[in-house]
TrEMBL record:
SUPFAM superfamilies, A to Z: Concanavalin A-like lectins/glucanases
Positions of transmembrane segments: none
Region ranges (Disordered): 201-221
Lineage top rank: taxon: Eukaryota
Protein name: Alginate lyase 2 domain-containing protein
A Pfam family this chain is assigned to: Alginate_lyase2
Domain Alginate lyase residue range list: 54-176
Length: 221
């Protein structure tokens, strides 16, 4: 797969052709460090009637959110697509290393991201086995999928190679969208408004644990 050329341009509304689907505590799971209570975080969710989760195995799905990585947080995964075939755990990891976002360890997707809000869009076409990444509306990378029977979007913070002692990422305006072509298969109501309107903080101090490159945690949809 090829990265975008140096003549990046802002794309049209990336959610055109997609329908936002609701998030609530039935489909939004908080996974946390063992020593950090959920009450220590800030979380506000819109509420809908009970639904099953949004793990998916086909179609075209999109994650959209605004993220923030504080200065000196490094060696962490901040967003991922969980699920892959063979020995892999993930189809995608977006990591923060020394102030840059990268696709796994490379290539670099965006430099100078510390201490600023950025908009992230990830589009996963399961059947075509492609993942497209956009940062601040600009196409930055396309990668091949990695198979797997089921997938889920996750965001938060989790240690990877050469992790900093203190790790944090913040997320707001989180949206999950599905292609218009398959929304009727979900059997759920849709909404035009954001489902997560408040900032969500994810803080973690290392306690000496060690994790592999494809270990995953934090929020799952």
């Amino acid at each position: 797969m090829q990265r975008a050329s140096s003549s990046h341009h802002v794309h049209r509304n990336l959610t055109d052709g997609f329908t936002q689907i609701p998030l609530d505590h039935k489909v939004f799971e908080i996974q946390r460090p063992y020593d950090v209570p959920e009450s220590a975080r800030t979380l506000q969710l819109c509420k809908w009637s009970a639904q099953d989760g949004y793990d998916y195995s086909s179609g075209v799905w999109q994650f959209e959110a605004q993220g923030f990585v504080p200065r000196d947080t490094s060696g962490v995964c901040v967003m991922q697509i969980f699920g892959a075939s063979h020995l892999r755990a993930t189809t995608l990891m977006i990591r923060a290393y020394k102030g840059s976002l990268s696709y796994y360890r490379s290539p670099v997707l965006a430099p100078n991201i510390w201490n600023r809000w950025f908009k992230l869009n990830v589009i996963h076409d399961v059947d075509a086995s492609t993942v497209k990444i956009y940062i601040d509306g600009i196409f930055v990378h396309e990668a091949a999928g990695h198979g797997g029977a089921s997938h889920a979007f996750k965001c938060g913070v989790y240690s990877q190679n050469d992790a900093s002692h203190y790790m944090e990422s913040r997320w707001k305006g989180i949206k999950l969208l599905v292609s218009e072509l398959i929304k009727s298969c979900l059997g759920v109501a849709v909404t035009n408004g954001p489902c997560l309107e408040e900032e969500e903080h994810h803080n973690k101090h290392l306690q000496g644990e060690s994790h592999g490159c494809d270990d995953v945690d934090d929020n799952g949809f």
